Amino acid sequence: MKKKTLALLLSMGMAVSSLAGCGGGGGSSTDTTAAGGGADATTAAQAGGGESTTAAAAGGESAAAAGEKITLKFTWWGSQSRHDYTQKILDAYTAEHPEITFEAVPAGWDGYFDKLSTEAASGSMPDIVQMDYLYISTYAKNNSLADLQGYMDDGTIDVSGIDEALLNSAKVNGKMAGLVLSTSLMTFPYNPEVLAKASLEAPKEGWTWEDFTAMCQQLKDAGVADAAVIDPAIDTNLFNYWVRQHGDKLFSDDQKSIGYQDDKLMADFIQMFKEAMDKDLVPTPDEMAQIQTLGLEAGPVVTGDGAFTQNWNNYSTLVSAANDKIKMATPPTIGAEDQKGLWMKPGMFLSIAETSPHKKEAAEFINWFLNSETANDIMMAERGTPSSSIARDYLTGSGKMASQQEDMFAYVDLAAKMAGETPAPDPTGMSEVNKAFADACNAAFYEQMSPEEAAASFRKKADEILSRNNG
Question: What single-letter DSSP state applies at residue 296?
């Protein structure tokens, strides 16, 4: 599965490169189709991110309001449970708005952005797209996403309950490329029943990496098969947390290079996890690949074969149907000098394709999806802690939240004390950076390079990728 993951990241890099090729100033036939209005619309979209097209749509009456029957195509990734309840949300919206129907395109995470980049290149993106923080910058810069600012300004989308900094996490080059649905923070979920097998108490706020390693050793000695089910190289998120703990940043302000100056930061990160792998405390990349084939709800921490994993604070909600006892701990720290490594991560966004002929209707649905009691009753914060206080306040006072949802909301309050500023959206070329990071880490894990060589290799490749894509 690790090889599969690396192959996915490679294909993502190729796909995004293809996307970049179609979004520039070349004025290709694909660009004309995407703009939806000939050469003038193409020029406007390339020059201003499609602002003229979106502004016109925002200012007029929707086709649905004029009595036209509309079908909105909506794509998202997630587990089967997310697919099921999202379909219920779509059905509920159609019941309230009979003029609107949906073509649902659910998918898993694997391959989601491969397909989306192909659709963007051909001008056939779905009207409404679930978008990740990892890629929103790339799609926005290539004019694949409509600017939602006009719909926020005219009240079509009510953002009064969203923190301004969080709301602006979707702003790329002055363009509001999506509406942030949720916020999440990194967590180390754990199975308390498994910890009890090793006579271990739950980790306390401020526990250290040394505490984590010692607990994993005690779990292994107690016969726990998978002490910590963590892949430190699946992407750069955990490493980003590590870098921020040390008071530094992963990328430079102009996003053209790596932001930290000392490669020892990455070498130490690699060495820590290599030693854990050598002691059989965390899986090797090949072992992790096999675990990942099980799926989230059948993973070792959920089934009771593992103790810790690393995820986001909606994890316990995602797996609650299989195990409603999973708890969450803040990630390990480097000690008293820890520099607030956590950040309030936009969980995901809903974006509208620049090619959509039904932007106004899509914006109306997004507003309802975010703020309505009906949608939130069905969703029950599965996509993360709602970004809107309107939704949060409603859910908190509804008495309908399960203990996992309550834990998720409470975790945000707990972890916020350890959170620093939210970083800018990931730079263009992030899929390539992730691949370079995974390649370097795994080369060190399998002793094809030393940690120091791997860190230097990553810097060299990442700087080239970032400079090429963000120059």
Answer: G
The owner of tokens 């309840």 is 85
How far apart (Å, rounded) are the C-alpha atoms in residues 410 and 205?
Answer: 13
Distance of CA 445 to the CA centre of its chain: 26
Taking only the tens place, the pLDDT of each residue in 168-177 is 889 988 999 9
How far is the C-alpha of 356 from the C-alpha of 35, rounded, in Å? 9
pTM assigned to the model: 0.68
346 within 8 A of 182, measured Cβ to Cβ = yes
Show Cβ contacts of residue 78 under 8 Å, excluding neighbours closer than 6 positions: 86, 106, 108, 109
Per the document, the length of the chain is 471
Neighbouring-strand partners of residue 106: 76
| CA distances to 269, 334, 336, 345 from 339, in Å | 16, 9, 9, 17
260 neighbors 248 (Cβ within 8 angstroms): yes
Residue 33 has, within 13 A of its CA and on its CB side, a CA count of 11
pLDDT tens figures, 44-93:
333 333 333 343 344 456 666 667 899 999 999 999 999 999 999 999 99
List the one residue out of 94, 93, 78, 90 whose CA is nearest residue 130: 78
Using DSSP, state whether 138 is helix, strand or coil: helix
Q: Which long-range CB contacts under 8 A does 259-267 form with residues at least 24 apart?
A: 263/452, 263/455, 263/456, 263/459, 264/452, 264/455, 265/455, 266/239, 266/440, 266/451, 266/454, 266/455, 266/458, 266/459, 267/450, 267/451, 267/452, 267/454, 267/455
| For residue 19, pLDDT beyond 90 | no
Contacts 24+ apart (CB under 8 A), 164-169: 165/422, 166/344, 166/346, 166/387, 166/422, 167/387, 169/133, 169/346, 169/422, 169/425
Taking the C-alpha atoms of 376, 380, 383 and 389 in order, what is their torsion angle to the nearest 10 degrees? 60
Distance CA 166, CA 181 (A): 10
DSSP-H helix ranges across 36-135: 38-48, 51-59, 80-96, 112-122
